[in-house]
Amino acid sequence: MSRQYSDSSQASFGFGDLYPPALSDLIQSPQAHARHGLVELPLLPIRDTVLYPRLVSPLFVGRDRSVKAIEAAQVEGKNLIVAAQRDPEVEEPRPEDLYAIGCSALIIRTLRMPDGTTSVLTQGQYRAQIVEFVQTEPYFRVKARLIEESVEKSASTEALMRAVLALLEKVVNLNRSLPEDAYVYAMNIEEPGWLADLVASTIDIDLAERQQILEIFNPAARLQTLSIRLAKKLDVLELEDQIHMRVQREVDRSQREAYLREQIRAIQSELGEGDLQTQEIAELRDKVGAKNMPDEVRAKASKELDRLQQMPPMAPEVGIIRTYLDWIIDLPWSETTTDDLDVAHAGEVLDRRHYGLPKAKERILEYIAVRRLAADKQRVRSPILCFVGPPGTGKTSLGKSIAEALGRKFVRVSLGGIHDEAEIRGHRRTYIGALPGRIIQTMRRAETINPLFMLDEIDKLGVDYRGDPSAALLEALDPEQNFQFRDHYLEVPFDLSKVLFITTANVLDPVPDALHDRMEVLELPGYTEEEKIEIAKRHVIPRQVEAHGLKLEENIQFTTESLAEVIRYYTREAGLRNLERNIATICRKQARRIAEGGEKQLVVDGRAVREALGAPKMLQETEVAERTERPGVAIGLAWTPTGGDILFIEANQMPGKHGLIMTGHLGQVMQESMQAALTWVRSHSEQWDLPPDYFENRELHMHVPAGAIPKDGPSAGVTMATALVSLLTRRRVRPNLAMTGEITLSGLVLPVGGIKEKVLAAKRAGITEVLLPKQNAVHVEEDLKKEQLEGLTLRYVKTMDEVIERALEPSGRNPVSGSEYEDREPALVP
Length: 830
Prior knowledge:
The chain has 5 domains: 15-147, Roll (Archaeosine Trna-guanine Transglycosylase, Chain: A, domain 4); 276-330, no CATH class; 343-523, Rossmann fold; 529-613, Helicase, Ruva Protein, domain 3 (Orthogonal Bundle); 625-823, Ribosomal Protein S5, domain 2 (2-Layer Sandwich), CATH 3.30.230.10. It is elongated. It is of the alpha/beta class. Helix 10 (343-353) runs antiparallel to helix 11 and helix 23 crosses helix 26 (800-807). Strands 18-19-17-16-20-23-24 form a 7-stranded mixed β-sheet. Helix content is 41%, strand content 17%. The longest helix is centred in the N-terminal third of the chain and has 53 residues, at 219-271.
């Protein structure tokens, strides 16, 4: 060890100096040193090591105080007390910086070194307990009690010695830094204390542990402590040895493999069998030959294999061609699954998995029936279906059910947010990192050529400078073309004619006409209240109860009334997602109640619903009546992507310039409908007993509340005209009456769309009477069931005169005219 650390680093231990025969007679008993059990000797502070009795150790001394202590001991012909520093970094230690237990040492020889330090060869004799510091200058001098330990051995002490020796042998074998003869010297020691001190000085432990062993006066206890230290050390050494052996094995294996590969190359070269690349190309040829693929594809693959064979192994294009061949081999060119054409089984699967949706189920069963009866099933074209409906109506899950009913694999691609045409048709191989498009990638995942392929959210496709993805779908979704669909990456035709494509959309307006024309649209309208209750009982509640760790009937029960309240006042939507979220909320509340030791059974009624979900969030029937109790307010019916909804239309008038104010975030078509309604009302002013100049000094204001929501379309024309007539005649619109229809300047009522959604929205809002265009009667018969119309009175109208007659209450007094306007009660709507 470097000698720049003066006082006093222990040099490497030599077992030859363990117990020199010439010095053995110098070890004396404590009584030879002190008559009263105490000795007064110079003290030598050392650091980084601990001196043990009987052991010889060279110490390097450089501090003046330490050199003077050694000189005083030699002059007096006495021993030294050697004590370790608590902190080795302290240059000038004080008494409190030293351990209280040290070792008395005999100075054998001293040598001056070239660097100015003094080398002192010492031999420990007895443990010494420092009692008092007599002086600190010019060196430490202390009074100490020398401790003599017993050399008698008991059976337990003998067992401890053997255990320590066994552990030391293993440590020496595993630790390459320990001399091999350390165990030999240790096994020749018969005294337990001496053996413990030797082992402590031999193994690698820190200063605090060495000092701890020095302070244990009982030899048996010292051996016990050492056995624990040795066992821990042995565990670490064994783990290191295992890691070393594992690393060595890996290195040896790698070297062996490299050597063997070189030999294989040499042998193959001698035999003319070629290298590893030749073998891989041969394997690829075998795979291409075993794959049942069209002739054009096989020719393309063979051509790429020939190119690959002619290229050097390190050429950049080798990886590109290899990836291309992997795609060709992995695609399902002819692998199919057998369709289950049992119509009854398919109907049972669809009814079990889904409630309602009769049109979609009927179309699938018709397709299965045609496939079953057709003599040549390969010539039956698969339809391109498009499920259109509000969110949460089960479009995607219905596709999974159809796949299960047919026995086909189900694969799905979400088209929402795709802006790049290459996402559909793939990238050409000239681009770095080119891959096939989504369709080919999904067909590879399907592993069959006739899966049920769902293209989800087709109305969410975008267009930017990278092309139009919807245009890339035209070929895939055309039964006349998709048997030769070409992906830019593959550059060979792929047959998609056996795939059953199903697309989904919330609205069809964003879908291009050319793509729309290729699809057979099946509308999935919003569910009625009765359908939602039935679906909740069959599917939603069992799923949520199980997901929250509850048991149906035992922990929670939902009544029909509670479900109806949740549907009416908390989840007025076309689909079921919010209904499921609210049922999940109720289940969570009950799960927490049970976990906290509350009631283990809950019957969910109206009160439980309000406690779990808070105040009702939807418009109540009483609110509808309150908002229409004054003239000038009429209720219209609107269609939205999430289902139908009711629409309040308010009209008011005030003195001012001639004109019409329109507010409520209205679209262009809706504004034009307001203008048409006002024109019709003004053209019939005599019918309402209004003076000819009535509108010259009046300003009319029409407003559609919920002004932050965009509104457009012509179907509110009759509602606007009714609101204006109600305002001008001061005749209130009948309570709980709603209407829809487009108005012409001549007062005809034209048909509109979304009749089913609008009628169901009226029923949800508590409306009891609905005015519909006469020509929409056929849609009511086709789309609405008798039970869905319970509690509703539908009246069909052809003209605005019929609307006014049925919508307004009888007049209690004549309408105002002329100057009487300022004196009448204002018709403001709250």
